[in-house]
Amino acid sequence: MENTLHIVGGGMAGSEAAWQAANMGVRVIIHEMRPQVETFAHRTGNLAEMVCSNSFRSDDDEQNAVGLLHWEMRAANGLIMQMAQRHRLPAGGALAVDRDPFSESVTQALLAHPNISVEPGEITELPSDGHWIIATGPLTSSALGAAIQRETGAERLAFFDAIAPIVYADTVNMDVAWLQSRYDKGETEAEQKAYLNCPMTKDQYEAFIDALLAADKTEFHEGETAGYFDGCLPIEVMAERGRETLRHGPMKPVGLTNAHTPENKPYAVVQLRRDNALGTLYNIVGFQTKMKYGAQTEVFKMIPGLENASFARLGGIHRNTFLNSPTLLDDQMRLKSRPNIRFAGQVTGVEGYVESAAMGLLAGRLAAAEILGKPLPTAPQDTAMGALIHHITGGAEAKTFQPMNVNFGLFRPVDGLKGGRRGRKDRYKAYTDRAKEEFNQWLEAQI
């Protein structure tokens, strides 16, 4: 049993960690509390369930840091990327998936692996012995969260993450809306028409902002603070920051031409992204919200094209828990006070499905190598995974530590390249070329 790796949590990070360690020959037990213990956001007991969006964001591995992370995970035989590709939906330059078949396939692959078993039930204490990875994500149970707090001696850090609503496609008014990806991105017609677009005039936009600001919102419990992660702000919070904020964010009208009246430039555009393979569901892009349900239906039906919309799911809000990792974890993702325990995924302070799965991949390999008596250095700093792990385990300022997406701002400069916007394309290509070379060398050293 001392050579068994226990993983708490079967989300993106836990699923990927299990796959990587099992493929290295280590016995793995996944401890998953669902469906016995439910959460606000999850709907099923499947592993790797997608609760917020169905998008893994950009798939461009030459000019985008997220796309580079996709590349690294594929190079490392990542399960999440394999199943994402299998259940891919048209989404322009993004990697979006049919969420239910995706999670079902991940679950089936893990259950079929001879080195993996799943034990249902909640883990409420930090184990004192054995090899463990805690990958409980942003919805860590209150009991385990309290145990982590007792061990670390620090208050849990938290931000509020909001879920965007999903609309039934056949209730969208296509006399108003049209299909187009921004800048017509994508190589196929399906990719170039992966989004539904709902245009707004200036008057419609101003009325929409007024309604957002006046709508009833979910109240926070006493003692809670709204420390939102900027990459997942509720739309009403963005509106409070300035009336033009949404028009320069998720409602920006650039790169789009109204198919019904090409000569009329919309003042703002609401985009909906396909959410399943059948094309029957679309989620409203960037429309995370903490409005109450009744207010949501009223406000969202003000969007031209959605005046008669029916909602498969309304938005919601939940508390996300994460560690102050720069003070608590070493560069092997181990808890400094209990090195038999690693943490992985969003609970470490990375943000997003891709980043969570990547940290699971890394934790699984590091833990398996340690169990097998062949310690493994962490991913090189100039790779996407390495840049992330360096940031959360020491590169970030501990006093102001907040969840972070992967981005080129975490990468060390390449000598001889210009800074600024004009040199960005060459600089990003240099980052990704360097990262791919170093990541391949890191993988080859493990053979």
Walk me through the topology.
Layout (H helix, E strand, L loop, with lengths): L3 E5 L3 H12 L3 E6 L22 E4 L6 H11 L3 H8 L1 E2 L4 E4 L1 H14 L3 E5 L10 E4 L7 H11 L4 E7 L2 E3 L9 E2 L9 H4 L2 E6 L1 H13 L20 H6 L27 E7 L6 E4 L8 H8 L10 E3 L2 E7 L2 H4 L5 E2 L2 E6 L9 H19 L12 H12 L28 H21 L3
Parallel strand pairs: 1-2, 1-7, 2-6, 7-17
Antiparallel strand pairs: 3-5, 4-5, 8-15, 9-13, 9-14, 10-11, 11-12, 12-13, 16-17
Protein name: Methylenetetrahydrofolate--tRNA-(uracil-5-)-methyltransferase TrmFO
EC number: 2.1.1.74
Pfam family, one: GIDA
List keywords for this structure.
TrmFO; alpha+beta; 17 strands; transferase; 17% strand; Elongation Factor Tu (Ef-tu), domain 3; 2 domains; MnmG-rel; 13 helices; six-stranded mixed β-sheet; 447 residues; six-stranded antiparallel β-sheet; single chain; FAD; NAD; FAD/NAD(P)-binding domain
Write up what this structure looks like.
Residues 5-374 form the MnmG N-terminal domain. This is Methylenetetrahydrofolate--tRNA-(uracil-5-)-methyltransferase TrmFO. It is found in: Cytoplasm. This protein has helices at residues 12-23, 65-75, 79-86, 99-112, 142-152, 189-192, 202-214, 235-240, 293-300, 325-328, 353-371, 384-395, 424-444; strands at 4-8, 27-32, 55-58, 88-89, 94-97, 116-120, 131-134, 157-163, 166-168, 178-179, 195-200, 268-274, 281-284, 311-313, 316-322, 334-335, 338-343. It has 447 residues and is of the alpha+beta class. The protein folds into two domains: 4-156 and 323-444, FAD/NAD(P)-binding domain (3-Layer(bba) Sandwich), CATH 3.50.50; 162-319, Elongation Factor Tu (Ef-tu), domain 3 (Beta Barrel). A six-stranded mixed sheet has the order 6-2-1-7-17-16. A six-stranded antiparallel sheet has the order 10-11-12-13-9-14. A hairpin with a 2-residue loop joins β16 and β17. α1 (12-23) packs parallel to α11 (353-371), α2 packs parallel to α11 (353-371) and α3 (79-86) packs across α4.
